UniProtKB/TrEMBL annotation:
InterPro entries: Dgk1-like. One of its GO terms (molecular function) is ATP-dependent diacylglycerol kinase activity. It comes from the Archaea. The chain crosses the membrane at residues 12-27, 33-53, 94-111, 117-138, 150-172. This is Phosphatidate cytidylyltransferase. The keyword Membrane applies.
Amino acid sequence: MNTSLKNELKRKALHLTGLSVPILYIFTDTKFILTFIALAFALFVVLEPFRIIEELRDRIKVRLRLINPEMVAGIEVLEKHVKDIERTHERGNVAAHIYFALASLIVVYFFSEEIAIASVTLATLGDALAAIIGKNFGRHRFANGKSLEGSLAYFVTGLLVITPLLGIKAAVLGSLVGTLVEFYGVPPDDNFSNQVCVALALYLFSLL
């Protein structure tokens, strides 16, 4: 397995922890899941400066080295894993997990349980499968580097996720919207735009 694919699998494995949101939502209620996401989002925001600013991490490691050198070694291993899975544009900017948590908070707060579960699940599974299949089996590439195979993987995932929750017509619409958002990388970040755009599309469809 080449290094690029290995790092992509590591990134997507971490990304799949986003499935904790729909899973917990199924077994709890809106208040609990909003609290869970809000706490995760707050933690991510607090820790983000330490990921971005290397000098800040170094100052902390100097102090910790006097107290617990083994902890510093653990931090450095974690740093290496983080660098392995970071996108180039994330190294000096907000990372995907912050956008994902913020979008989940918005989607769960403003939309129904079925729409929220569908949107978050699709954004999590669809993105992961599109990237993995696109990197492994993508033979028909577009100018932006995305592949037809990856986009089809996202679309099919959407059909499988949304149909049991909202029906086939809503699934086709939501999957198409999500596929386009993922393909074009709609700003500010597709981890944000994917959830919000799919949820909005499904909501508007439900009004027809």
